[in-house]
Recover the amino acids of this structure.
């Protein structure tokens, strides 16, 4: 029996004579020598779409259950291996089964449903290629019972999503949100190979065609080096045959938002700002950012020397010249948001909002520090071996700096019930950092020495502390 099924599958595959040559819905990555078919799109069509991906999906790709299908909705027959063994449709004129392989790539338009006297229900379609009628017979129950589920009609990929995606996305620049994509390996078949590509990279949509029944919109993109790859995604999930909870974990990339995201509206015309995407930066100064946790967004203090990867940059439509950075902390992977300007001439913008003032590129000073030192800086602690610059990064500038009689430097940081005394070697390296009670004799002596030192600086009788 198994051998017979395999033989039948092989024969069915051999019967698939329809090819992609003259079908604008069948597109291939260029590694199989296929010139992608481009729809005619104007510049206004491309730039009119904004960056709010949630609004974009809900507005343009609403889910339509079979109960909501309207006559004229168009689908393409995309049989999978199982469909080659179990025929889906019957000829409306003869009532005979029709091979799914023979109907491969045929476009069927929906013609409503029909309740028969024997209790069966036919879902009717018109084949635009054969100019014939076909129907799918529901396995059981009434049309209302069947249509509220997500079973749909096997083999049919919804072309409404494909057409809308062509209209809105061709030529648009997107950001990759997964590492896993595909490239075609067969010109006239469905073969592909898995390829990996870094997240958060800018790509351009080069072609859009039909994918599979579950993931009907095949989006081919090209990176800055001219390499093409694709993802087949579900947009509205109309007739996908999958429940919402089946689009998680491994299948998340087969949702549009799992593989791609938009750039900010103003980013479309700014190649300079695009270049910051995916870059590693660090904070030069302590600053406030917003962060999401437990479903809430709250303001948080971020220490100096915190490293981030820039995941996204979105233009702020309400504040011209401002951009919202989506930042992923290097160590904790937590997501933060910061509003910045990329030029210093934005009206009324404080200096702290200027990207070049607040952020340094790359790992910065961390290249010459140990992991232990970097951790201490982020936690606001001082440990032996730190330089003066690193102490200031961790604690801020000390208001009290003295030079002892033996030529060593001490910095004092007041606390609620004590004072942190940081002692440096003559080379400016932390020798020790100890907390002392505020009322101790040593603390009073240091304060007196500090006052004397300040007096010397005022009269010019002493050597200033650097």
């Amino acid at each position: 029996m198994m051998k017979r099924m395999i033989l039948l599958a092989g024969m069915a595959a051999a019967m698939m004579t329809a090819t992609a040559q003259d079908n604008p819905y069948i597109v291939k990555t260029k590694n199989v020598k296929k010139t992608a078919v481009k729809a005619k799109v104007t510049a206004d069509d491309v730039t009119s779409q904004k960056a709010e991906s949630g609004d974009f999906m809900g507005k343009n790709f609403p889910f339509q259950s079979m109960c909501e299908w309207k006559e004229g909705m168009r689908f393409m027959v995309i049989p999978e291996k199982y469909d080659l063994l179990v025929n889906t449709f019957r000829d409306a004129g003869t009532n005979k089964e029709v091979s799914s392989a023979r109907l491969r790539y045929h476009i069927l338009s929906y013609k409503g449903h029909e309740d028969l006297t024997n209790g069966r229900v036919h879902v009717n379609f018109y084949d635009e290629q054969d100019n014939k009628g076909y129907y799918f017979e529901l396995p059981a129950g009434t049309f209302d019972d069947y249509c509220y589920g997500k079973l749909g009609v096997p083999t049919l990929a919804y072309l409404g999503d494909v057409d809308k995606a062509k209209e809105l996305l061709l030529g648009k620049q997107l950001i990759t949100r997964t590492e896993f994509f595909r490239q075609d390996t067969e010109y006239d078949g469905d073969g592909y190979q898995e390829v990996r590509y870094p997240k958060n990279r800018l790509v351009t949509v080069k072609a859009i065609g039909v994918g599979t029944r579950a993931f009907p919109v095949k989006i081919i993109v090209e990176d800055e080096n001219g390499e093409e790859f694709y993802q087949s995604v579900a947009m509205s999930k109309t007739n996908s045959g999958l429940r919402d909870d089946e689009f998680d974990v491994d299948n998340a990339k087969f949702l549009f938002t799992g593989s791609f995201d938009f750039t900010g509206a103003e980013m479309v015309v700014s190649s300079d700002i695009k270049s910051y995407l995916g870059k590693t930066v660090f904070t030069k100064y302590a600053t406030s950012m917003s962060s999401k946790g437990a479903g809430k967004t709250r303001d948080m203090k971020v220490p100096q020397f915190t490293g981030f990867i820039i995941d996204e940059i979105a233009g702020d439509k309400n504040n011209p010249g401002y951009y919202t950075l989506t930042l992923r902390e290097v160590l904790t992977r937590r997501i933060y948001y910061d509003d910045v300007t990329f030029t210093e001439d934005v009206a009324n913008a404080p200096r702290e909002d200027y990207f070049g003032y607040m952020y340094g590129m790359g790992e910065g000073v961390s290249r010459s520090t140990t992991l232990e030192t970097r951790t201490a800086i982020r936690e606001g602690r001082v440990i032996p071996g730190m330089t003066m610059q690193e102490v200031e990064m961790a604690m801020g500038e000390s208001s009290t700096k003295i030079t002892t009689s033996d030529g060593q430097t001490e910095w004092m940081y007041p606390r609620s019930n004590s004072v942190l005394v940081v002692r440096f070697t003559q080379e400016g390296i932390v020798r020790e950092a100890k907390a002392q009670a505020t009322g101790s004799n040593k603390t009073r002596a240091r304060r007196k020495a500090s006052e004397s030192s300040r007096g010397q600086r005022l009269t010019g009788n002493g050597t200033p502390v650097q």
About this structure: The chain has a mean pLDDT of 79.
